[in-house]
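Researcher: Last one for today. Full complex below.
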Amino acid sequence: MAVHGSTVTSLPHGSSNDQATPPIPPERTVRSRSEKMNARRARTGWLFIAPFGIVFVAFLLAPLAYALYLSLFTKGLATGTRFTGLENYLHAFSDPQFLKGVWFVVRFSMVLIPVQMAVSLAAALVLDHLTTRLARFSRLMIFLPYAVPAVIGALMWGFLYSPTFGPMQQVFSLFHASAPFLLSQDNVFYGLLNVVTWQWAGYYMIIIYAALQGIDPSLYEAARIDGASAWQVAFRIKVPLVSSALVLILIFALIGTLQFFSEPQILGPVANGSITPDFTPNIYAFNLAFGYAQFNYASAISFSLGIIVFIAVYVFMFATRKKGSTLS
Amino acid sequence: MSAAALAATLAACSGGGDTAAAGSAKTCTNKIVHADAPKVSVWAWYPNMATVVDNFNNSHTDVQVCWTIAGQGAPEYAKFQTAIQAGKGAPDVIMLEADQLTGFELQNALVDLSKYGAADVKKNFSAGSWKDVSQGDSVYAIPVDGGPMAMIYRKDVLDKYGVKPPTTWAEYEAAAQKVKDAGGPAFGDLGSNVPAALTALMAQKGAVPFTYDLADQKNISIHLDSQPAKDVLNYWAGLVKKGLVGTQDQFTTDYISGMVGGKYATYISAAWAPGYLTGSGVGKGKERGTFAVAPLPQWNPSNPVSVNWGGSTFAVTSQASDQKLAAEVAKGLYADDASLTDGWKTQTIFPLNQNVLKSDAFTNNAVDFFGGQTANKDIYIPAENAYKGFNYSPFSVYYYAQLQAETVKINSGKISGDEAATELQGIMVNYAKSQGFTVN
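Model: Here's the assembly. Have a good evening.
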């Protein structure tokens, strides 16, 4: 609204033709008519936004507000509910189980995101370079894991990792060795890393690939005329030009990983106990609420995680604000 | 405009919720025989529940059961917990394992059935199993089945290595060592996901992890680091360390395939285990009759102790619209001869009803899974009759999660049994305090 108003007032000053028009009364009528029109436009605008607005309020803002409200109370099994203000938050940030989960997802994203980006960027660059039918087929194949629902994918990996049935075990037994159990306490980090990379790299590849397709081919032509090799074209032209897509992916991946839930939750039953009820902050919140009947504290945990995600994303966007012009 | 629409949306939401809760009568898994009779909604997951519900509905004209499967164990408890928090959405009658009762009782989610004639059916049950559903004079559920524990073993494996079924835990370890030295399979298994079984084994040595009385809501005693508890954890940690038992989580496909392949010589488990194993394809084909069962090994053979793992009950929730009618269902469902017979013949349940336990057919049943052994008469009925009951904590889900985490640490060799017991005690005391209990 503010922008709209300022353009209207600045118009007469900007154009010399307007200054030349002499009669004043018509101007007043024009203005009042345009004000009416503006009001009607605004109403229409709100109407158009309404369907989204209602859904947004009902399914996002209202639950958020309710969760915030819940998080300000404390209910023990042996005590009634009482208002405790920010006590749950103080408790959360000194709760070793919550902090352990946070540390896990932070570590996990620090390893996962670079791996995922490297894989998807490499795939996108290769596919962009090739124009054969095989490339189109490969593009589909790399994207396919993303089309598999996360739950199905996780179940499938549970089977692949199985020390009894898994194909890995069969391969290793050819050499009279036993395969490592990738969901054991020491290996679960890598086991999950593999599942998530498999699941998401294809999706990120498509985003980067789409950005690559948007680059003006004359740039490549110019580069080739200047004697640039294919590698140089890739790293000096393509990568810098898709950097905003990379930033976008990074933020998606960061948010997704900090909220890590589905895969460990699904793989939990076959992980021989290495995926604990406090494995990630979201799993912890889930178990607090639905397993231990602590809805208030679970709300506080969820909000604390939200704060951490917000800070992480903000810091990241601030750090990359020059490169990712679309996001800053 | 938008506010009105928003209100409409919200109204639609809550309307939907209402239909799901109250109208579950419309979405029964079973057929309603007498459409005019009032309906009582039931959540349960017994594998033969369809037969049980039909038996009930066919023989009752004054009330009809509307049955839903809301998940097996933990998923059902999570839904019930959510319904308690929401104040609506719970069924009238719910199937709960005995170890979950105290926690829900404390939240006033269950109805005291003593005022609805629970005493009428008390005579049908052993003192131990009745104690498990009672708090003082109050009765919060009607027992259906139990899980007296015993040692299931592979006859073929024990014969091959010349080992007799051990009767004490010392013999158990010696036999395990002998089998291992001869290049045999693991003798047993310490799965981290069966904390209830491990707790029962601790109780067998005399540990009393929790003492809690609902009449005195704020006070609880926690003794998870008592010497008997430490002894049992140390014993199993020792077996793991020496490589005598496996560390595979149970009820997983990996574990079942190990059972099929003879990877575990014994299975310390409850009376319902054969039904479960049979359902998963164990003991069939060429392995038919390779299993047998012996009494649970003892610490002190001159003073044998019987313990229980699992078993379920029917409780009436405080959200039930007609508590009296719901209590009738809790008392009568899965209590008729036809249903109980179907249950024990398919080895789905080990019934707690004394009429069945004393019946000739049940007592002398030659159990096919155990190669025709009269397992009920020889092993399970004596074990059930000797069961004294157990005092459960009001936060079983949390406790089990912590014991599971400690078992994982034991299984990976990171800590000893002593350390696990001490850690567990610290965690549980802190938790109880944070929940407002006074820990003695």
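Chain B is about 45% helix and 15% strand. The first strand of chain B starts at residue 39 and ends at 43.
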